[in-house]
Amino acid sequence: MNTKFCPNCGKKVNADAQSCPNCGFSFNEHQAQAPQRSITQDHHSKALLYILLSLIIIILILSGLFIYNNNRSSSNHSNVPNTSGSNQTQNSQSTTTSNSSSNYSDNIVWNSAKASSFDDQFDSWASKMHQSYVSGSTSFDGIDYPDDFSSKKFIINGSNSTISMAGSNKNTDYKVVEIRYDNDDGYLYLFAFHDGSPIVLFTQSGDSNGDTVSFKTTANGELRNLFSNFSAN
User: Fold this and answer.
1) I want to staple 203 with a disulfide (CB 3.0 to 4.6 A). Which of 20, 97, 198, 207 is the partner?
2) What is the pTM of this model?
3) Which residues is 121 bridged to in the sheet?
4) How would DSSP label each residue in 50-113?
């Protein structure tokens, strides 16, 4: 006869018994519960697997955010302007400009032959105008010519301008070669070159105001034509 042991009391019973005659343990109920426990264990295993997968996903998301923030931080640092380099560039440009100015050499050629020819033609024009002009340095309307060229403010044809004598090797807008003035009538002419072209500048008494003096191109066409015959070089 086939037998089996009761899992509750340990007594040997008939293998076909539905319950233990000794303690009343029901074999059918026990067998029905075994699959239920297996299903429950399966549910627990699946739940644990879901939890592990969720943790892995969360870790991956956090890692991605960390890497993204690091990349943004590095990018922001790389976009910060290099002030030191900019200052060095500006200093270099300033030095270059300074050197360019100090190394400037004007190419105005005003020799004795040109000066003599100009004197003759200008004196002829002045005689025709019944005027008497003096050449060279002078103090006119509170301005010393040419000493105040660099210290006074010159407004030429409505624009702030720089001016100097030709041969001074100063990088200015206008290069003067001749000065003519008539203190009696209060007229002064500057014969200069602007961008290589001859120009006759005119001022009169009352056109200066403190440290500022105004000039304009002369309206005298004959005098303009006279000086236009002379070249800068």
Assistant:
1) 207
2) 0.57
3) none
4) HHHHHHHHHHHHHHHHHHHHHHHHHHHHHHS--HHHHHHHHHHHHHHHHHHHHT--------HH
